[in-house]
Design brief:
63% strand; 1 helix; mainly beta; Outer membrane phospholipase (ompla), Chain C; single chain
């Protein structure tokens, strides 16, 4: 919990200048609601069933030059969606199944001394709104993953609409899984924690395509762990060295504006974490819906 308090302190520190001089912040926000629905009459020939799918996405970036030598950039990304299906025999609606769920908040402080590269310090929190790992109990904002990084950053390209940055440094991660069943007989629960540390590389690219109607956001994160707090517990197990393999997270968001408030969104994510799966995991979402932008 010490890490949580420290991270919240970073976010609070980043927010204080906004209260005093909100007009100095460069803010970009985008929210979208995607809906899909289908229905069939009772005498429809076939096995099709009714369904309703919805997804709510939100992305916000706040950036400010707090001091001639201190730049602060905050990124907040949220997504949640569910799919409701109708039973083919009874026509009753089943309990909704989660289709997407993401909480991703990051704050970066860059110390702009006019050098070839800028020193930086960052804090990031990742989670999900609803955790149904144990179906009998819903856990909210769980599990939690915190990352603190220190190192050097370089702006490769930046103008009014385009930005390309890369940063490399030391990274430290903490994992918190709350209310994990420890004893099924007594109902006792416990909080499982672990941490690791190593090197982190992050490459971010944001640029418009086809004028201002299409935008691409790309983020690649690589992490190489050098130590893991539970490595001793894994000795002798088949996957005792899996934590030593590099982790990769490659996200791409392609957004096309059909009209001012109608957009097409293509999101892809490629994940590799050998401790979770021996192969890469891929996620793709294509949606059409309503959107609202500022900035």
């Amino acid at each position: 919990m010490t890490t949580l308090v420290r991270w919240l302190g970073i976010v609070l520190l980043a927010s204080l200048p906004a209260l005093a001089a909100a007009e100095t912040w460069k803010t970009t926000s985008e929210a979208s609601l995607m809906l899909a629905q289908n229905a069939y009459s009772n005498n429809w020939a076939g096995e099709e069933t009714g369904s309703i799918s919805w997804t709510l996405n939100s992305r916000t970036v706040l950036e400010n030059q707090l001091h001639p030598r201190v730049n602060n950039k905050n990124s907040l990304k949220f997504s949640f969606g569910q799919t409701h299906n109708q039973d083919a025999e009874t026509n009753d609606w089943e309990k909704p199944a989660k289709s997407t769920d993401l909480i991703d908040i990051e704050s970066i402080f860059r110390f702009t001394y006019g050098l070839f590269v800028d020193p930086f310090a960052s804090g990031r929190a990742e989670s999900q709104f609803l955790d149904k790992s144990y179906p009998e109990e819903a856990r909210y904002v769980n599990p939690l993953k915190f990352t603190e990084s220190l190192g050097l950053a370089k702006t490769l390209l930046k103008d009014e609409k385009r930005e390309w940055t890369a940063r490399f440094g030391a990274g430290f991660r903490q994992y918190v899984d709350r209310d994990v069943p420890a004893d099924t007989l007594t109902g006792e629960k416990e909080t499982v924690t672990s941490n690791d540390g190593g090197f982190e590389f992050v490459n971010e690219l944001n640029l418009p395509l086809a004028g201002d109607r299409v935008t691409l956001s790309n983020k690649l994160t690589l992490f190489q762990a050098l130590f893991y707090s539970k490595s001793d517990e894994l000795v002798g197990l088949p996957g005792q060295d899996y934590w030593k393999a590099p982790d990769a997270n490659w996200e791409n968001i392609l957004t096309a504006s059909v009209t001012k408030h109608l957009m097409v969104n293509l999101y892809t994510q490629l994940l590799y974490d050998k401790e979770v799966s021996l192969g890469a995991r891929f996620k793709q979402t294509l949606s059409l819906g309503l959107t609202y932008k500022t900035g």
